[in-house]
Amino acid sequence: MDKKEVKETKKANKKELHKKAHEEIKEESKTEEVEAKPKKRKRRNKKVEGYKRRNTLVEVIIVCIVLVALFFVACNKTFLKTNYTKEMGSSKISIDLPRFTYYVGVDDEKIVFKTLRKSQYTRRFFENYLETGPFDVYYCGNSTEPYYYNEEGKYFILGIDVTKKFAVKTITVRYSTVDYDLFCDSLNEKVENNEAK
After folding, report:
1. What is the pLDDT of residues 9-29, one digit of tens each?
2. Residues 6 or more apart whose Cβ sits within 8 Å of residue 148
């Protein structure tokens, strides 16, 4: 019986050791899970913080671009106005414009504007403006081409052209500040000079 008791005690000891080993493994895995979870959270938090930083940077860049665009638009002579006025010697050129027309510049008796409006609406606006505005229709000799004279401002509008490039339309206002009596002679001189070239 001694042997049986010894065998049973050995079996009982093995079972207890086996149970303890399993319990230790379970406890270790639990502590590893507890330790691993915060690490994963930290990694996730780092990723989230990275996304937040990137999104904040993108938002700041977009806001800066919008502010710069608004600055250029607000500083433009005509974008928020419906009229362009310029004094040249004894003449005062005044031209009505559709709203949100961007002033580009003046060059050799031409004033250039840009707009996003449809070309047909822009052309119709200027046709109505020349016909009903403060202009007298003026013809030189036998020519059928009309010129528009503003007696108050003492200038001629030779024509208003609207050209389209993609979505942006270019408005070119051709004008002259030549004296009323010398206007036809100055046009003839320009034509002769252009033919000579």
Report:
1. 877 878 787 778 777 777 776
2. 130, 133, 135, 136, 137, 138, 156, 157
DSSP annotation of 34: H
Tell me how far apart the alpha carbons of residues 188 and 177 are, in angstroms, rounded to a whole number.
15
Amino acid at 93: I
Three-class HEC string of 90-116: CEEEEEECCCCCEEEEECCCEEEEEEC
Mean pLDDT of the 129-157 span = 90
Residue for token pair 């503003």: 150
Q: For residues 123 and 126, give the distance between their C-alpha atoms in angstroms, rounded to a whole number.
A: 5
- Relative to beta strand 102-106, strand 155-165 is unpaired
pLDDT, position 3: 73
Strands (E), 26-67: none
- CA atoms of 131 and 16, how far apart (whole Å): 109
Name the helix (H) or strand (E) containing 175.
Answer: strand 168-176
Note the residue count of the chain: 197
**CA 174, 178, 179: angle at the middle one, nearest 5?**
140
Q: How far apart are CA 109 and CA 95, in angstroms?
A: 14
Long-range contacts formed by 122-127: CB under 8 A, 24+ apart: 122/98, 122/162, 122/169, 122/171, 123/162, 125/98, 126/160, 126/162, 126/171
Q: How far is CA 129 from CA 20, 24, 114, 158, in A?
A: 99, 94, 18, 14
